[in-house]
């Protein structure tokens, strides 16, 4: 993300550009992992573009917030794993974008918060639903009701991020750690990873019995893959598997 004059805030044009990028990623079979990072030092995403928002009437605001929600849903629905590299401020919609990712890595100095109530708003791009799944209902309510900001260390202790790292002089420590995490994912069987993500995401939406049925359907799709056969052969032959994603 590289909108330096507005701290990567989510304005109409920027949101359209993100939709276009997601459309390309969704159908690129060579993509194994997606890392969301900022090219703007000290900020991941400052949230909604409130200067632009102030010029909208009520109907326009409702339409745009719905579009933001759709954007976060599109990020969450990418078939491959996604990692948010939070090297600076991730506030409001910026944190909601990170929450839409599968995994989050933050610099210890990063600041995160759903601060909408401090602006007379409430999270409208999935924050009220995704935050409780990370930190639990009680803590999610506390963070949203107070609009509190937390740093990377606090975020890790409450389960908001997977990893926290000290910031470096280049200001991209979270991104560098996210790359290490991505490289751990890359050698694994791509189709199995995709099915694992699908089983988790869909299973969380239903009761455990239905979730087990979803897992079974995902597993059934993986059984006839060449990668599964390669994994079994590699195990038998005591060699590293060579997965191709088919």
Automatic annotation (TrEMBL):
<keyword id="KW-0456">Lyase</keyword>
<comment type="similarity">
    <text>Belongs to the enoyl-CoA hydratase/isomerase family.</text>
</comment>
<dbReference type="InterPro" id="IPR029045">
    <property type="entry name" value="ClpP/crotonase-like_dom_sf"/>
</dbReference>
<dbReference type="InterPro" id="IPR001753">
    <property type="entry name" value="Enoyl-CoA_hydra/iso"/>
</dbReference>
<dbReference type="GO" id="GO:0004300">
    <property type="term" value="F:enoyl-CoA hydratase activity"/>
</dbReference>
<dbReference type="GO" id="GO:0005739">
    <property type="term" value="C:mitochondrion"/>
</dbReference>
<dbReference type="InterPro" id="IPR014748">
    <property type="entry name" value="Enoyl-CoA_hydra_C"/>
</dbReference>
<dbReference type="Pfam" id="PF00378">
    <property type="entry name" value="ECH_1"/>
</dbReference>
<keyword id="KW-0809">Transit peptide</keyword>
<keyword id="KW-0007">Acetylation</keyword>
<dbReference type="InterPro" id="IPR018376">
    <property type="entry name" value="Enoyl-CoA_hyd/isom_CS"/>
</dbReference>
<keyword id="KW-0496">Mitochondrion</keyword>
<dbReference type="GO" id="GO:0006635">
    <property type="term" value="P:fatty acid beta-oxidation"/>
</dbReference>
<protein>
    <submittedName>
        <fullName>Enoyl-CoA hydratase domain containing 2</fullName>
    </submittedName>
</protein>
<dbReference type="GO" id="GO:0003723">
    <property type="term" value="F:RNA binding"/>
</dbReference>
């Amino acid at each position: 993300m590289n909108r330096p004059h507005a701290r990567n805030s989510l304005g109409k044009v920027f949101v359209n550009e993100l939709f276009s990028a997601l459309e390309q990623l969704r159908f690129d079979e060579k993509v194994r992992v997606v890392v969301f990072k900022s090219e703007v030092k000290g900020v991941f995403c400052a949230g909604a573009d409130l200067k632009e928002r102030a010029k909208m009437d009520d109907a326009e605001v409702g339409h745009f917030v719905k579009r933001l929600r759709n954007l976060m849903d599109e990020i969450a629905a990418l078939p491959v794993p996604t990692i948010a590299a939070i090297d600076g401020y991730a506030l409001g919609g910026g944190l909601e974008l990170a929450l839409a990712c599968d995994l989050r890595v933050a610099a210890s100095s990063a600041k995160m918060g759903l601060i909408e109530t401090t602006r007379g708003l409430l999270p409208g791009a999935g924050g009220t639903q995704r935050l409780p799944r990370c930190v639990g209902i009680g803590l999610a309510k506390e963070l949203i009701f107070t609009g509190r900001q937390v740093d990377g260390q606090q975020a890790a202790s409450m389960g908001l991020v997977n990893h926290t790292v000290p910031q470096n002089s280049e200001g991209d420590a979270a991104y560098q750690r996210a790359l290490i995490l991505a490289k751990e994912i890359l050698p694994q069987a791509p189709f199995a990873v995709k099915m694992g993500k699908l089983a988790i995401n869909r299973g969380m939406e239903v009761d455990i019995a239905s979730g087990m049925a979803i897992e079974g359907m995902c597993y059934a799709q993986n059984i006839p893959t060449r990668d599964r056969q390669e994994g079994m052969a590699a195990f038998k032959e005591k060699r590293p598997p060579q997965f191709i994603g088919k």
